[in-house]
Amino acid sequence: MPSDKTLIKNIRKLILASNTPIPFQKGPALSELATIDSAFLIIENGRISSFGPEDQTPECSGAVIDAHHGYVMPAYIDCHTHLVFADWREQEFIDRMKGLSYQEISNKGGGILNSAKKLAALPEDELFERSAIRLTEAMKCGTGAIEIKSGYGLNTENELKILRVIKRLKVHFPIPVIATFLGAHSFPLEFKSDHQGYINLIINEMLPEIHKEGLAEYCDVFCEQNFYSPDETGQILEAASRYGLKARIHSNQFTHSGGIEVAIRNHAISVDHLEVCNEEEIELLKNSSTHPVLLPSAAFFMNQEYPPARNMIDRGLGLVLASDFNPGTSPSYNLSFVLSLACIKMKMLPEEAIQALTINAAYNLGLESDYGSIEPGKIANLILTKPCPSLSYLPYSFGNSWISKVFIRGNPDFSSEWAL
Ligand code: NIG
Ligand code: FE
Predict the structure, then answer these.
(1) How many Å lie between the centroid of ligand 2 and the Cα of residue 347?
(2) Fewer CB within 10 Å, N side or C side of the chain?
(3) How many CB atoms lie within 10 A of CB 129?
(4) Could you report the per-residue pLDDT of 146-186, keeping only the tens digit for each?
(5) This model's pTM is above 0.90
(6) Residues with CB under 5 A from ligand 2 (ion)
């Protein structure tokens, strides 16, 4: 049993450490990172109780962990994943190597429909086991809170199966798990020429049942050419809001789909992807409270242009970064890789990318009072790095394993405790 009190000593730098609440970081503030050099930190009953400069380290009666001059930062918050799926889709990866596009693969029954077929054949218990293993692995890579979408069911029975698995993950795991209903991820084959028929099913059958069982906090729609039009997206989001589900949507992954306008009109918390995003769309976002969520590992895996992150920040926007972990377009839950891509491919500064993956992501999921920064009283979900020369070294050292320990509720041994 770990002691109630733990002192971490010899910390080279505490990242995002503040005695007052850090706001959602926008524009120039995104690069202003609150840090303390040469520090200690004390965890009590799973929460951060105090921290400060090393020369003020108090005597500690509990456990003592030597950071060996590593950095301590808040654990990552992954606000966009599709972690509950039946199986990987590496065969489509090969199709893409041979020159097929995502849309071509999707048109011939691959893509989301392929995942839906596999998921329909898998019992709920097995889906839970597979998802729990992935979540444990994501936590070992530093994820300390996560959003998970449905969307590989595409009928009432299987959408509910995914959402019930997410509910079981919430109960079994010591981190926040936020559920999003994404029944409108694609159109099932039988509704290919009857879009309204499937939308009616979402509105009249799925949403009431989800509401009754309390299975989701948010509703998502894939607003994209060949998927959901802006009008269809609006219809679904309006119905979802009547059931108390807030909006967060996929948009502008491949085209200027019109999703940004619909997202803003429906007070969506975020519009996610934005690989394709022009000046007018940036201006719309600037005049709204909808967060842009960028998913550079999907752009990397799909060999696409990256979202114009630098321009967005320079125009004053606050950005959020996430993994988009899914078997089709981003088969990675590793947010340290997202951190590197954000810098290397989107010209974000290390400070900006770290805040986009922690404090801003916490606001995106409504978790800011307990997660996303090192503040007294917040839950001690933390990453301790191996000894490293500077903050910039973290994104620079891409693909390398620079995490020494991940603390979940102050516990550095959570992975053996929670592994299945
Ligand atoms: O976020 N864009 C839509 N949904 C996923 C891809 C899903 C899939 O191909 O399985 C995404 O990229
Ligand atoms: Fe996604």
Answers:
(1) 22
(2) N
(3) 13
(4) 999 999 999 999 999 999 999 999 999 999 999 999 999 99
(5) yes
(6) 324
